Amino acid sequence: MKSTRIVLASRPTGMPTEENFRTETVELDPPGAGEALLQTLYLSLDPYMRGRMSDAPSYAPPVGIGETMVGATVSRVLESADPAVRSGDYVLGYGGWQTHSVERVKHLRKLDPEAAPLTTALGVRGMPGFTAYSGLLTIGRPQPGETVVVAAATGPVGATVGQIAKIKGARAVGIAGGPRKVALLRDHFGFDAAIDHRAPDFVEQLAAATPDGIDVYFENVGGAVFDAVLPRLNGFARIPVCGLIAQYNASSLPPGPDRMGLLMSLVLRKSLTVRGFIQTEFSGQFGEFYSEVSGWVREGRVAYLEDVVEGLGSAVGAFQGLLSGKNVGKVVVRVGE
């Protein structure tokens, strides 16, 4: 079996370019004991992949030069050497940016295409949804009547954060870029307020949308958005730090004065909780998440959007669009039929 794959050709400086990737075709070995040969149907694209392209110290090892780009996948089993899965099964795995893969069956999760669209295993019912659920409820701990603000709010994590906050009785305020996304936050996802961070009066809009201050700020962006949020934080506010997409392509510290002293002063004076996290820290909660969120999706209490692009060859352009905020919803590449 031959597989077409996209590998990391060089480490990017700033925004990744086409030159940082290389497409090649390789021949796969047959599956050995405990393995299965898979055909990739859908590939997930996520912001964390930019960090894996760098060799700077991080929570996960970098992708090596010449190695297949990492990524979660929904695949069809073509051949299995393990009785836990059989030919024709659909599975969630980690095959990466390639058309076919051989994976350890113990690392796969069987999917039921009758229960929900297969793509939701990469979004609202998968890692992004679990990131929102575990980070918000474990660190943010929203209470009825509190105000929860989330950045990158039309993305699969941010949209789920806002909707779970409302289910828990809190008021949800979403921040996104552009009028279309702001409208989706109100009309599709049901946020109580939505703000365009590109608007010239963004700071004033944020103040108007949070008259009682901010109790939970779910951080996905950093940069100027965090600068605007910081003065609005209430005493004992909680800040789950999930991502800093505004800084992922930075190759040096941003210009301007050192504001670390201001931040630490507010942490002290307002008794703020600032906690970075990776969703794998809360893996013991996955069963509860899967049951609750699947039910909320079926009941229409949690909506989702998917931005599906066609063909593995579209992955690089879609990834660049993801990092620059052009996507709306969960970015998925349809790799195979």
From TrEMBL:
InterPro entries: ADH-like_C, ADH_N_2, ER, GroES-like_sf, MDR_fam, NAD(P)-bd_dom_sf. Keywords: Oxidoreductase. The keyword Calcium does not apply. It is an enzyme of class 1 (oxidoreductase). Its EC number is 1.3.1.-. The keyword Oxidoreductase applies. GO terms for molecular function: oxidoreductase activity, acting on the CH-CH group of donors, NAD or NADP as acceptor. Residues 14-333 form the Enoyl reductase (ER) domain. This is NADPH-dependent curcumin reductase. The lineage of its organism: Bacteria, Bacillati, Actinomycetota, Actinomycetes, Mycobacteriales. The gene is curA_4.
